[in-house]
Amino acid sequence: MVQFSGGQSSNRKYQAMQIWKYVGFASLLIWFYILHDINNEFSVVSDHKDQLTSQHPYQPKSQQKCRPLRDVSHYSTSTVHYPIETDSAGRQNSKYDSCLEFKCDWNSTTNTHCDTFGPTVYNDPTNPPCCVHILRDMAAAFDAVMCKLGYEYFSSYGMLLGLVRNDKLIPWTSDNDYIATERTLAAMYDMSIEDKKVWDDHGLAFFFDNYYHRVCVTNKFMNGKLAKLWTTRSYEWYPLVYPYADIFIAKELSSNGNNSNMSVIKDQLGCAHSMDSFRPAQRRGVYQNSFQVSMPNDAEKVLERVYGSTWRIPDKEKRPHGDTKCKG
To answer: 20 to 30 A Cα–Cα from 273, which one of 18, 69, 256, 306?
Structure first.
């Protein structure tokens, strides 16, 4: 056995203590970073329960700049179809052939499960996605289409009400509501092959069924995520079962009869608004700024005209289509 002097032994003890001190410090650092990463992981999961990612998949930042508005002045207002009043004409149900028939959760629309900012859950094999979340995704897709094609439109009625009041759609709503002028609608139906592809790529179909100008989702909606698990067949009329969107017609009118000076916009439900309350349309971020939609220039003024001064108070009866009568 080798023997060391007292000085050598003391020196080696000191060196050993120094080594263990550094090892202990390094171990603490390693555990700090491990715990830090675990905490971040749980924070992300927790935060995403009621939050969307920074941008909606239909509206990445690179695509938020819209094409300049198309000039639709040369289109005739006489080519726009208005709802047929007689019952004998009937709705053209064949127009819905391209629409996806799917299951979604209506029952939870008034509960916290669906009345949230959280992302739509398409991949749960046991629970269908919330209907109001699908309507949210439809709103993002519709805006992306109109933005890319350069068409003017305005979110309206119950859709506008929910987005302005709560930054999200009314949880018990059954559809999205839009307004477009007669000439804009005429231009929208005058689709080129390229225009049709834009609608198709975003999983939306647009048509007139003798009563409404309507938008539905197709099997390509959200890259086929909805169709993958939740396609179904129903013998009921499409809009009574599945979320959809209506585009209401607006007339551009003059307050003094001079057609060269359009100062009033009158919607399909008979509400007349000053033109400056609608134009220029404003693109506003909704759902925690995860995507944008087009709104009237003075959305609050329009809502007060349609719903009265109490428009900020939710409907106690929770009517799916609201109470859209001019009250202002």
So the answer is: 69
